[in-house]
Design brief:
By secondary structure, the protein is α/β, with parallel strands linked by helices. 45% of the residues lie in helices and 13% in strands. A hairpin with a 2-residue loop joins strand 17 (606-608) and strand 18 (611-613). The termini are far apart. Mean pLDDT is 85; it is low at 417-424 and 556-567. The chain binds adenosine-5'-triphosphate (ATP). Adenosine-5'-triphosphate is lined by residues 15, 17, 19, 23, 37, 39-45, 281, 319-320, 581, 583.
Length: 678
């Protein structure tokens, strides 16, 4: 394979500079290995450049392809956004670029489920799953309801799994290594009779079986099906190995144990020829279920497991962080592996991190104004990096179920919740679907969803139903398109991608709108045999004509926005989770209340006997408890986003004791500013 000769072109396209020798070495490396690197070291950028070089060698002579996986849709969108226009072949058969979940669904769970049960299924998320279980519980016998009130989680968290002998069991901790059904301690303490517990288990099994029969699978159930598939079809592994000669996994730190295991089960075998490269940063593993952040990272590197056979690669210098920001970020490293140090190589900023002191009366507006003042003070709105990267205010906790007196993003900025709540899925004319997607998400995912919602609305208005007589949804629409064959499906996906791209990146709303109108009225859309009718006569647009053509919506809002945007500084609000992997020009991190101790500073500033440790004072952390470690990782991710300016907003009461020593003019490392009440 020729890699080297394409690197120069990749440099021109992706970094407008040169890769140093370490990064070049990784690009050229085609052996199974793991790469661990600090935030902003260019993990994703280097991987993208590598994929570009590899894809210049496609198609491979043996007909195989490459598999590119990541944990989140955000990461996949990012890869697609940067690469698809330069090497569309990478997104076509025999290659596959997607999340681990989509890979597992597509190559293992769906084939197995449909083969076994002869009908299609839908993967559902936690929210819908809980809704279904709520329904079952509402109609359950009193004895079951009694237990459900004592420990609700056990009902929602149950999954089907296989025990070591391959028998179907129920467990409430989805984990491939250890299969358990943990009876809540309080049931045991209260001497609950075993028959009662068995009844609860039977009830759960019953509900899950009902869900299966309806074709509804929880995300995790797909892994169970995949395991079953691999066990019962020995050839499957070999076929998948042959199809994918190279596997690349980005964001490796966020994978769960069972996800890591299934990939290794398939590809990492003695006689497998597949090359697997896994890339990540263990200290950035902030995913868990819901708001929870995993305490430890499940990823054990090849070197961890087989030090004599494998050597992990690592990169310590961050091309995003300035030396000052990097010094601080380095103190938030939870797990300091050998040689792991965050070193800032971005030389265009020399600003100290800013500590913004607030009190319980400080308003969101005051905080935002302070941020804008600082951006203007340092002239960051003129900074060329800002064009791509922008300014963001982030927080760990964005919303709380019960309004309370503590600090979190929505409380400070009501527009944060207003925006997400007012996000509608249905509009009265097609054009609105193109303009009113969720712009908070900087990926193509929300515009994609919005366009698909617009399409299903058209089918609905035309009275077109799916083969079960139901209104088309995004998923059934995509399934229908997939059923029309690989070429048709790929063509549709590629159209969809370029529409999304042209809207989000190029703001070509009207061009895309006109192109889509032609598409909708053509035989490849409305002319399809949507309801699988015999003697089908292709339809034309009829009932939805007005909806599609309607000009009742004039996008004044957007035009107005872009005119004023030039003068005003646009600040986006987001959760720390949502900005993982991003690069900003300036980031303002606001501490927020969650668990106890409440705030990030309460969690990470430690006193043990006479010893104290405060990473904000550049002292080594002493975080040992689950919550402290979670906070440290959230701050590590949040603090490592900006190229130029990092602001950390804290409640005065939380740092009062060390306020003086934090200030850089008094030996500390922060530019300290207080927002006082008028
Ligand atoms: N070789 C390079 N030369 C110059 N700039 C680079 C290079 N690689 C990456 N960058 C820039 O550095 C920033 C961070 O890159 P990237 O997002 O790829 O890092 P990362 O290691 O994946 O980050 P994170 O750990 O936060 O996910 C981006 O602005 C990117 O354009």
């Amino acid at each position: 394979m020729e890699i080297e000769k394409h690197i120069e072109q990749a440099e021109k396209i992706f970094i407008n500079g040169n890769f140093d020798s370490k990064r070049k070495k990784f690009i050229k490396n085609l052996k199974t290995c793991d790469l661990l690197a600090v935030p902003g070291s260019g993990k994703t950028t280097t991987l993208i450049a590598k994929l570009y070089c590899i894809s210049q060698n496609m198609p491979f002579e043996d007909g195989s392809g490459i598999l590119v996986l990541a944990h989140t849709n955000h990461a996949i969108d990012e890869i697609e956004k940067k690469l698809k226009k330069h090497c569309p072949q990478l997104f076509e058969y025999p290659n596959f670029v997607g999340t681990i979940q989509s890979f597992v669904n597509r190559f293992l769970a769906i084939p197995h489920f449909t083969q076994k049960n002869k009908f299609k299924f839908k993967v559902i998320d936690d929210f819908e799953y809980k809704k279904r279980f709520d329904f079952f519980l509402k109609h359950a016998k009193d004895s079951i309801s009694y237990f459900s009130k004592r420990d609700t989680n056990i009902f929602y968290k149950s999954r089907f799994n296989l025990d070591v002998e391959g028998n179907l069991i129920i467990c409430n901790e989805f984990d491939n290594e250890e299969i358990k059904f943990n009876i809540p301690q309080k049931w045991i303490n209260q001497n609950t009779e075993i028959e009662k517990i068995t009844k609860v288990l039977d009830f759960i099994k019953d509900c899950k079986t009902k869900l299966f029969k309806e074709g509804l699978l929880h995300y995790d159930d797909c892994y169970f099906y995949s395991k079953q598939y691999l066990l019962s079809n020995k050839d499957t592994k070999k076929i998948i190995q042959k199809r994918f000669k190279y596997v690349f996994i980005d964001e490796m730190q966020d994978l769960e144990e069972y996800q890591i295991k299934i990939i290794d089960d398939i590809f990492f075998e003695e006689d497998s020829e597949t090359i697997i490269q896994r890339i990540g940063d263990k200290n950035q593993s902030i995913y868990g279920s819901g708001k929870k952040v995993k305490q430890t990272c499940d990823w054990r590197t090849r070197q961890d497991k087989e030090p004599l056979k494998y050597k992990d690669l690592n990169i310590q210098n961050s091309l995003r962080l300035s030396p000052k920001t990097a010094v601080l970020v380095d103190k938030f490293v939870l797990e300091r592996l050998e040689k792991y140090r965050v070193v800032g190589k971005f030389e265009e900023s020399n600003l100290y991190p800013h500590l913004i002191i607030i009190n319980r009366k400080t308003t969101g507006e005051q905080i935002k104004n302070k941020f804008i003042d600082l951006i203007k003070k340092y002239n960051l709105q003129q900074c060329k990096k800002n064009i791509d990267n922008g300014f963001k205010i982030v927080s760990w906790i964005t919303e709380k179920e019960d309004e309370n007196k503590e600090v979190y993003l929505k409380k400070l900025f009501s527009e944060y919740s207003k925006e997400s709540k007012s996000r509608k899925e249905d509009f009265d004319c097609f054009k609105k679907y193109l303009y009113h997607y969720d712009k908070e998400k900087l990926t193509l995912e929300s515009i994609r969803k919005s366009i698909l919602n617009g399409f299903t609305r058209i089918l609905d208005l035309e009275g077109i139903k799916d083969n079960k007589g139901k209104r088309y949804r995004k998923s059934t629409l995509m399934q229908f398109i997939k059923n029309q064959g690989e070429a048709f499906y790929n063509d549709f996906k590629s159209k969809l991608f370029s529409w999304c791209f042209d809207i989000v990146i190029r703001n070509k709303y009207e061009e895309v709108f006109n192109e889509m109108k032609d598409f909708i009225s053509s035989k490849v859309f409305i002319g399809q045999n949507w309801s699988n009718e015999e003697n089908y006569v292709p339809k034309t647009i009829n009932q939805s004509k007005e909806f599609i053509d309607s000009e009742i919506f004039q996008p004044i809002e957007i035009v107005k926005q872009s005119a004023t945007e030039k003068e005003e500084i646009n600040i986006e609000l987001a959760s720390v989770h949502a900005v993982k992997g991003q690069t900003h020009c300036a980031t303002m991190y606001i501490e927020s209340a969650y668990q106890r101790p409440l705030y990030e500073t309460n969690k990470i500033i430690k006193r043990k006997g006479k010893k104290t440790s405060n990473p904000l004072l550049l002292e080594e952390h002493m975080c040992e408890g689950t919550y402290d470690k979670q906070a440290l990782k959230m701050m590590y991710v949040g603090f490592s986003r900006p190229t130029h300016l990092l602001c950390f907003v804290v409640l005065k009461e939380n740092v009062e004791d060390c306020l003086d020593s934090l200030c850089h003019s008094k030996g500390g490392f922060w530019e300290v500013e207080e927002i006082r009440n008028n």
